[in-house]
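Reviewer 2 asked us to include a model.

Predict the structure of this chain.
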Amino acid sequence: MIPGLNDRRRFRDLTEQQILALAISSEEDDARIYRTYAQRLRAEYPGSAAMFDGMAEEEDNHRQRLIELHRKRFGDVIPLLRREHVSGYYARRPVWLIETLGLERMREEAVQMEQQAERFYHAAAARSTDAATRKLLGDLAAAEAGHSTRAGELKHEHLDPHTRDSEGAAAHRQFVLTWVQPGLAGLMDGSVSTLAPIFATAFATHDTHTTFLVGLAASVGAGISMGFTEAASDDGQISGRGSPIKRGLAAGIMTAVGGLGHALPYLIPNFVTATTIAFIVVFIELWAIAWIQSKYMSTPFLRAALQVVVGGALVFGAGALIGLG
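Predicted model (structure tokens):
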């Protein structure tokens, strides 16, 4: 059980043995994190996986040196002391959070991990008045600085320019397949498909409140439907499109956003004002879709704009005719 804030010990109250035990457990945790990154990346980014394997080995080597020092000074029994037991000690972000954010985020996190550890040991050494403790903490700071240097060496060793470029292209492709493509499909569906019910209701009733409720129901319903459809249609194992949960969230949220964009103006009581703003929002939505298609899907901008505008105009026209009829 993780202790509460009142149960944590302050760093300045720790003994030299406890400080060493804390360093050992921290090195062990960091090695485990790097190995988790490596396992996550091995299939798609073998170069980066090799880099993290090397960093984990460096952490293991330093942990062994610390254990040997502990055995020499204090014996074989190492106190159980971890980051969460010490108030103010630097924390690590959950691995499950970082490993879902992509290759570059893992690399950045590794750099921050080394820098945090180095700064902590320097600050701890500066507060120490005991010569032996100061030397120990200084050695730990130097070890962490060595980690940073070694990390750079490993990056150059395993990530030559060609490897970095190919892994970057693969990461971009995965980002497009997992987030952009389903999100764009959802935005298009939400923006275009809800035009007909929203504007049909608006022109038929001239009641902004009713129009807003219809738009809200259509947007939320379409978002839920689109999200579940995307998640259930492909588990990503064969297609390589990534997690169905991520794709479902992207599609569902963007579908709802696309519909709500031109439903929210009908919170304004004045019908003419609300409808005018809704027209403007629709125009912005359609051009945004065309821009996303051009940027991420390699579709020529004018072609994408023509497709989206023509499709939107047809759906809007159908809704307006039904509402006025």
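The mean pLDDT is 80. The two ends are 67 Å apart (CA to CA). We have added this to the supplementary material.
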